[in-house]
Write a structure and sequence with these properties.
By secondary structure, the protein is α/β, with parallel strands linked by helices. It has 20 helices and 17 strands. α12 packs parallel to α14. The chain is elongated, with a radius of gyration of 27 Å.
């Protein structure tokens, strides 16, 4: 009996239905029993309704060793395609744990490589949902090739299109390197794990006993290692975080950030800013309180909130325009710069520069954190990353010195010497090589040693040094800062400055690339 058109269509519909069922009803049920969605369900939940177009959904692996030929499913463990999020085009892929534990083989590599190539060529962000058992050992070297092809594309796409990785299950061994290269990692608490070697291997090799959550859970990586930028409460929260990230960043490196219709008065001047910095330089304050009062109301979106809290990084809006915000937080470690803060700041500055987001820096810099562990850990090398990132950045750069601006720590935090476009200071700013007491100890050491009333003389010299440097006027007189602002004036002044700089054009010397001190 001849087939008719309806038969062909019905056959296709049946095959499509089968492809969305992953590894079958039992495995889907097991996934749901863990409180986890399937790969298809996750993508549908993330993107705009009806916008997902799947690609290569019928691909099958070709391997037969270890009875793999008896374990073939359409799509082979990865769902990939393109869609829209809040009306913006994106490419997306998700590992399917219901198919051979989401293990990564040749087909998975080809499918992810395909959507990444499409993302770069189309100039759209790519989002990867990770939930898999690592390399598919049964495929041998083909699995390693698959990872390598994806890693290569991650690197080539870096700085061209935004890359976001979501960890919603196991991500171990070689699997961790693709997310590590991407711009942002979102991990779901009590669900996602990342580590090079798991608890069993660690116990066998080092004797250390640790569970998966402590070793590589969302809390660990968002607060201790800094590998993850966001820790989500659940899958829905993770998807909300992705949408929020995308709302601040452009689709590629040739576009400006997505502006919104301004809803906050550009001339708003919050008088509480005038007294927010304590008169006593040894007293702390939270730089977040400064940031939230200056930028468009409720627009500050912090990145890496729980990691290196002596530094603040995040996105915000000024009169509807998205910007990157960097600051030191005197409420934690007096805002001093340590190894972790260096890495956090430098990486974020480079992201903003790559994607044309102006960088607004709030500097309150008492110095780099002293100590043997910091020196032996390479604070020189890590601190130099901030310097490098700011000096390399060609996006608009505006810096506000709110209080302490001491030594090299002042220089690296977006100073005019690193070609910040505009540098402002508040009246509370103290701009000097170091604090008054340290300076007097060095400058007048011999003199004080021979002075009868050394304590009184030392106090007089400290006050004399403060009178000269514990204010911004000497720096302003020398042209090292562009203006001194009443703190409540900062918002309208920043908006005006951004308007001036929105078409800024500058270039770096011709070279293959620099050699950042990694």
């Amino acid at each position: 009996m001849e087939s008719n058109v309806d038969d062909f269509i019905n056959q296709l519909k049946e095959k499509r239905k089968t492809a969305t069922e992953g590894g079958g009803a039992k495995r889907v049920e097991a996934q749901h029993a863990k409180g986890k969605m399937t790969a298809h369900e996750r993508i549908v939940k993330l993107v705009d309704d009806g916008s997902f177009i799947e690609l290569e959904g019928f691909m099958l692996h070709r391997h037969t060793d270890f009875d793999l030929d008896k374990d073939r499913y359409p799509g082979d463990g990865v769902v990939a395609g393109f869609a829209k999020i809040e009306g913006r085009r994106v490419c997306v892929y998700a590992q399917d744990f219901t198919i051979i534990g989401g293990s990564f083989g040749e087909v998975a590599g080809k499918k992810i490589a395909k959507v990444m190539d499409l993302a770069v060529q189309s100039g759209v962000p790519v989002i990867g949902i990770n939930d898999g058992g690592g390399a598919r050992i049964q495929e041998g070297i083909w699995s390693l090739e698959a990872y390598g092809e994806v890693f290569y594309r991650n690197v080539q796409a870096s700085g061209v299109i935004p890359q976001i990785s979501v960890i919603m299950g196991p991500c171990a061994g070689g699997a961790v390197y693709s997310p590590a290269i991407q711009d942002f990692i979102v991990m779901v608490k009590n669900m996602g794990n990342m580590y090079i070697t798991g608890p069993q291997v660690i116990k066998a090799v080092t004797g250390e006993e640790v569970n998966e959550e402590v070793l590589g859970g969302a809390d660990t990586h968002s607060s201790v290692s800094g590998v993850a930028h966001f820790a989500a409460e659940n899958e829905e929260d993770a998807f909300s975080t992705i949408r929020k990230i995308l709302s601040y960043i452009p689709s590629n490196n040739t576009e400006p950030g997505p502006a919104t219709t301004p809803s906050d008065d550009p001339w708003r001047m919050d008088k509480s800013l005038d007294t927010i910095v304590p008169a006593d330089p040894s007293s702390s304050y939270d730089m977040r309180d400064v940031v939230t009062r200056i930028f468009d109301l409720e627009s500050f979106f912090e990145v890496s909130h729980s990691f290196a809290q002596n530094a603040i990084t995040g996105f915000a809006r000024l009169h509807g325009q998205p910007v990157g915000v960097v600051g030191q937080n005197p409420a934690v470690m007096a805002g001093s710069i340590d190894i972790d803060a260096s890495d956090k700041i430098a990486r974020f500055v480079r992201f903003c520069d790559a994607f044309n987001l102006p960088i607004i820096t709030f500097s309150d810099s008492p110095g780099f954190l002293p100590g043997v562990s910091q020196e032996h850990g390479g604070i020189i090398r890590h601190g130099a990353k901030i310097l490098y990132a700011y000096a390399e950045a060609t996006t608009p750069k505006i810096t506000i010195i709110t209080r302490k601006g001491y030594g090299g720590a002042m220089i690296v935090m977006g100073s005019k010497y690193l070609r910040a476009d505009l540098v402002f200071a508040w009246p509370s700013a103290e701009i000097a090589v170091m604090g008054a007491e340290g300076a007097v100890n060095i400058l007048y050491r011999k003199q004080l040693k021979d002075t009868p009333n050394a304590a009184e003389e030392r106090a007089r010299l400290i006050q004399e040094y403060k009178d000269k440097f514990s204010n911004p006027y000497a720096a302003a007189a020398a042209g090292h800062i562009d203006d001194i602002l009443i703190p409540s004036e900062t918002r309208p002044r920043l908006i005006a400055a951004l308007e001036l700089l929105k078409d800024k054009q500058t270039s770096l010397p011709a070279k293959k690339h620099g050699n950042i001190p990694l």
